[in-house]
Each structure stands twice: as structure tokens, then as C-alpha cells.
Amino acid sequence: MTETENIAYDVVVLGAGPVGENVADRTRAAGLSTAVVESELVGGECSYWACMPSKALLRPVIAQADARRLPGLSAAVQGPLDAAAVLARRDYFTSDWKDDGQVGWLESIGADLHRGHGRLSGERTVTVTGPDGVRKVLTARHAVAVCTGTRAVLPDLPGLDEVKPWTSREATSAKAAPGRLVVVGGGVVATEMATAWQALGSQVTLLVRGKGLLNRMEPFAGELVAEALTEAGVSVRTGTSVRSVTRENGTVVVVTDTGDRIEADEILFATGRAPRTDDIGLDTVDREPGSWLEVDDSLRVTGSDWLYAVGDVNHRALLTHQGKYQARIAGAAISARASGSAVQGDAWGAHAATADHDAVPQVVFTDPEAASVGLSLAEAEQAGHRVRAVDYDLASVSGAGLYGDGYRGRARMVVDMEREILLGVTFVGPGVGELIHSATIAVAGQVPISRLWHAVPSYPTISEVWLRLLEAYRDN
Which domains does the chain have, with CATH numbers? Predict the structure, then answer.
């Protein structure tokens, strides 16, 4: 028979990924007693199956591609990557899927970790069932924060379970490169994993249902990435859906909607995410299990004065850095309300996640990289803004030519013509991921173009594109 222990805290955090860790950090810094509940590894999806392992896989790929663009160095890096060494470095950055270090960090800030499956069991209450079956009932005086993230969604295809397809988890943790890999999807996970595994020795076929890649960015971003993937040896097939998947004598057999038959050793579905809220007791607080949780700008769930949903589960921006930003906002808001202090909920206030609406940055670590912040041209027009898009060929920037021979890239800024501020910026090209924070500052700060003229880019760097964009805006 299981025993039940009742423990009271100021705050209970459900989920110990980067988002949950940051909520706990902020509430502990404010002096609130905080419990963190985790059913898997402390550090979450980002640390073990997403951001860290994927970027560890991609960094050697991008470094090699950059080196091959430089005479005097290119001849030294013409051979294939050492896949075993790349995978070993990936394992290092995941701590070999052990969370001792992150557990130690939680302990260092004074948060209590409860391992097991946590479920809401009523207002301000979370019941945790541990691996040994022992139950603990955690009550929260001030707030429960749901930070459980998302899971990969697989399509409804007959017999797919028997095929044992890869999701993002298997794609980032595989111990060897499959000889042939089919990747289904055209978004970030699909393009990044196609980039990584092709370079590590896989023959990759990318099946995209839509017309192109990276459809949430400016169209030219997907076009340039598709062109580069094709040149690298990936077979990119757009306008293609999967009709059936089977595994025959160990071989994956894919039949497309056009009747084509593709054989592979593994298949990765990168076709979307769903909230991990199906078994966390939402029904006990009058919420729909498995649903995204709607929140206000302080990340408090609509209609509640104690329940918060932070990170992917609120569907605002499925990005680790944005979830951590939300966590800082939520932690500050919880702490302010707990102390009876005023909540600064106005736009750009200390307790408002305003950037979720206006200034979300993202980098896709393909070759070339694609980076954007704010609204695309189409999004700005759909929102009713009177805008102008200003484009510039990145290859014409001195710093880009020095970065590597044959540099290809493009930049766009979307200008609000009434206020003369930037609503969005997109860069595509080698090395542009390091440019996007300057664009984020310009968009989030609503910096007038007249003031941007005085932000002088260093010469000769790729960031000189800012001057060229401003000149193109002025002269046309």
C-alpha cells in the first residue's frame, strides 16, 4: 500500500526543463519556497533531445562548410566528417543523458526536486507518484506553474507503430548514421536533421507536403536552404505527402501520394508538436486534457488566479529562449503577487511577455543559416500595417566576401511606413545567426530608422548589411 505525504510550498513547478528551472530560479530568488516536479531528466527536452544535441551535431557540419569556402584551408577539410567523434561530442553536451549536474544546480538555488509523475489534483494542488509508487501531495500557497513542454506528433498512418519511426528524440540521440534516411517535414527540425545526417554519411530524402521549406519565414529563406541541401546531396521533394509506411525485413518502405516507392533504413517524422498536457490532471481544474493553455501576458492561465502555463504549453512561441524569457516574466509576476506588490502588466513592463507578440527571434542552424525576428512581410501586411520590404544581397557586403568565397545570402527588413520603425528582419547566409540579436534589439526597442543611422556597423563585417539596408531604404 502506498503512503501519502503532504508538503506545502509557496510555488509548485510542474516540469524541470529550462522553463521550469527558470521559474524556480526567479521564485527562489524572491525568497519563495519552491518545489519542482519532473518525471524524466532534469534539464528537459532542450538539454537531452533538442537544442543541445542538435546543435552539437550541426556545429562540425557548419564549421566544415565554412572552411571549404576558404582557399588555403579548403583542401585540408575535403574528407568526410569523423562521425564517431561528432557523436561523442554530442554525448558530452548531453552529459550522456545523465542529469546529475542539473540536479545539483536545482539544489544550489534551494528548490526541492520531486521525481515522479505530477498531476494537478485540485486547486493549488499537485499529486506526485514516484517511481516507487509512493505519493506526495504538494500544495501551493501562491502558484502552480505548468512547464511540461511539448511532444512530437506522428501522423495517423496504419501500422506506423510497427515501423518504429524516428521523432526528434531519436534523430538527435541516434548512435550511428543510418545509410538511408527519409525525413518527413519542411520545418526547423526537418531541415536541421537533414543537414546533420547528410553530412554524417546518410543518404537523405526530404519529403515536404507544402511548396517549400521553412514556411514561417520569408519565402527566400526556404528557397536558399533547399538549394543548398540539394547541392549537398539531399533529395528534396516538395508537394509530396506520405501515403503509407511499412518496414519489410528491416527496410522502411515509403509510398508517396504520387505512387513513388522509397526505401530507407530509418524514417524521421518532423511534422509538428502537441502540448504535454494530456495526463497532468487538467480535468480536475476544469480544463481540457491535452489542450494548449491560454494565458495573459503575465503567463497566468485565463480565468485563474493561481495557475500559470509557461513555455511551449501556451503555444505562444515554441522556442527554448522564448520559454526562458516567459519563465523570467512569470517568476517575477508570481513573486510580485505573492508579496502584494504592484504587477507591471503594461506593454514592455516587468511582468508582461510583450516580446511574444512583437519580437520573437529564431535561428535555423542549416547551411546557410536562416535567422529572423518579428513579422515577415506577409504577416505585417495581414496585420494591416502599411509596410515596405527592403532587400539586400548579402554577397555584396564586404564582410561576407571575406567570410568565404562564393558567399550566398539575402537580408530583408520590413519597415512600418507610418512610424518608420522595423517590424521584422530576416537574414539568410553563413554566419548570420550571430547577427539576429542586433535585429532583435531594433525590433523590440522600436528604434526609429533615423536613430539606426547612428548605429555604425564595424568594417569589414557581415553586419555592414545594416548600412546597406538603410541606404537602400533611403535611396529608393
Answer: 4-43+99-151+275-355 (3.50.50.60), 153-272 (3.50.50.60), 368-475 (3.30.390.30)
Helix (H) or strand (E) holding 399: helix 398-403
Q: What is the pTM assigned to this prediction? A: 0.96
Report residue 220 as a C-alpha cell: 527566400
Helices (H), 30-82: 44-49, 51-67
Q: Cell numbers at residue 69, please? A: 569556402
Query: What DSSP letter does each residue of 144-160 carry, written as one string?
Result: EEE---EEEPPP--TTH
Report residue 264: phi and psi, to 5°.
-155, 170
The whole-number mean pLDDT for each consecutive block of 10 residues of the chain, a chain of 476 residues, reads: 80 98 98 98 98 98 96 93 98 98 98 98 97 95 98 95 97 98 98 98 97 97 98 97 96 96 98 97 97 98 97 97 98 98 94 96 98 98 98 97 96 98 98 97 97 97 97 93
Report the alpha-carbon distance of residue 308 to residue 360 in Å, rounded: 21
Contact 89, 56 (CB under 8 A): yes
Cα atoms in the 13 Å half-sphere on the side-chain side of 91: 10
The pLDDT tens digits of the residues spanning 371-413 come to: 999 999 999 999 999 999 999 999 999 999 999 999 999 999 9
Q: Note the residue count of the chain.
A: 476
In sign, the C-alpha dihedral spanning 331, 337, 340, 344 is positive
Distance (Å, rounded) from C-alpha 230 to C-alpha 198? 11
Residue 259's φ and ψ, nearest 5 degrees, are 90, 0
pLDDT at 97: 98
Kindly report the CA angle at 275 between 335 and 97, in degrees rounded to 5?
85
| Spatial CA neighbour of 120 closest among 103, 143, 151 | 143
Cα–Cα distance measured from residue 440 to residue 436, given in angstroms and rounded to the nearest whole number = 6
Q: Which residues, at least 6 apart from 379, have a Cβ–Cβ distance to it below 8 Å?
A: 424
Rounded CA separation 298/11 (Å): 16
Residue 466 to residue 44: CA distance in whole angstroms: 37
d(CA 470, CA 343): 38
Q: Which three cell numbers stand for residue 119?
A: 498531476
Helix (H, G, I), strand (E, B) or coil at 374: strand
Q: Beta strand pairing status for 125-129 and 235-237?
A: unpaired
Distance CA 191, CA 62 (A): 13
The C-alpha cell that represents 380 in the structure block: 505585417
Proportion of the chain in helix, strand, coil states, percent, rounded to 5: 35, 25, 35
Burial of residue 165 (CB within 10 Å: 0-12, 13-18, 19+) is buried
